[in-house]
Structures are given as structure tokens and as C-alpha cells.
Amino acid sequence: MKAKNWALGLLLGAALGIASAQDVKIDGAWVRATVAGQKATGAFMTITADQDMTLVGVSTPVAGVSQVHEMVMSNDVMRMSEVKGGLPLPAGQAVTLKPGGYHLMFMDLKQAVKEGESIDVTLTLRDAQGKSRQQVLRVPAKPLVMQPKSGMHGDMKGHQHGS
Ligand SMILES: [Cu+2]
Predict the structure, then answer these.
(1) Fold observed for domain 21-143
(2) Distance 69 CA to ligand 1 centre (A)
(3) Residues around ligand 1, an ion, CB closer than 5 A
(4) In angstroms, what is the span from residue 117 Cα to ligand 1's centroid?
(5) Domain ranges in the chain?
(6) Which residues, in sequence order, are bridge partners of residue 97?
(7) Ligand 1 centroid distance, CA of 70 (Å)
(8) What own/partner pairs with CB < 8 Å and gap ≥ 24 does 74-79 have?
């Protein structure tokens, strides 16, 4: 019933030429401002999809390589790696990308990301039917608020991937 309503809404939206840009809600997006010589940075946000979606890719003009990353424990060391198969965005669930967890990774930076400036970030999203589309965001650059190292560790050890 719900899916049917949604499909009908999509059909109407398409018929009226309305872009379904509001399918995925983005809250609190920011990218970590870089310091001199820094070649990589991360971006963070909370993403809420109103239908099951998968974040399959990301790009920005300021980086040569952009990936969706996760932090994983490997031999007691936190490492980050690309999320294989994309990051699931279950319908109605807020998925938070934050330091120490999921993040958008921008590598091979072509320019500095300065505090107070914004960069364009394009998310590639795939729906349950396998259709992909892109959503462009303006993401402001902010400095990372430094936290005590020990506190960070404690947080990470207790970290579980919640639902
Ligand atoms: Cu990363």
C-alpha cells in the first residue's frame, strides 16, 4: 500500500516535471577545513531517505578521488576503507556520517578547503529499483574541533554499528 502510494506519487511527480530532490534529506553537512599541505579531508552529515536508498558514490570538483568510507577495527587499529556496495539508507532512518564513523573521503585535493568557504558535493543515490540519480549539495568548511585523544579512543572502542 505504502509502496503503491509512493509509486503513484513518483508518477505524478514525473508527469508534472517535479524533481524528486527532496527524497533524501541532508542535515548538518560540513567538510573539514584543511591546513597547508593537507591532501585529503572528510565530509560529514546526516542523511534521511524517505524510501530505501543506497549512497553509491560521491564526487566534488576539489578532489581527484572521492569515496564513501567507514571506520573498521582491524587488529585493534582503527582503519578506514571504502564502503563496499554503497552505504544503505533505510527508509525514514537518519544515517549519520561523523568523525570516527562513516564519512565522505576526499583525496588528491586540488585546492585548499578553507574555513568559511563551501564546496559542491554530488551524491549518487540508487533506489530499490536500481535507478540512480544525483543530488548536489553546498557543503560549508569548518575546522575539526579537537577532542582529547584518550576520549576519542574510548568512544571508538565502544562503537558499534547501530541500526
Ligand atoms: Cu576516510
Answers:
(1) Immunoglobulin-like (2.60.40)
(2) 5
(3) 69, 80, 105
(4) 21
(5) 21-143
(6) 45
(7) 7
(8) 78/156
Q: Residue 141 Cα, ligand 1 centroid: separation in angstroms?
A: 17
pLDDT in tens, the chain (163 residues): 555 565 655 555 454 444 444 479 999 999 999 998 999 999 999 999 999 999 999 999 999 999 999 998 889 998 999 999 999 999 999 999 999 999 999 999 999 999 999 999 999 999 999 999 999 999 999 997 765 554 444 344 434 444 4
Q: Give 13 Cα–ligand 1 centroid separation in angstroms.
A: 36
CA angle 101, 124, 92 (to 5 degrees): 65
- Residue 91 CB: number of other CB atoms within 10 A? 14
CA 88 to ligand 1 center in whole angstroms: 17
Q: 41: which 3 cell numbers?
A: 579531508
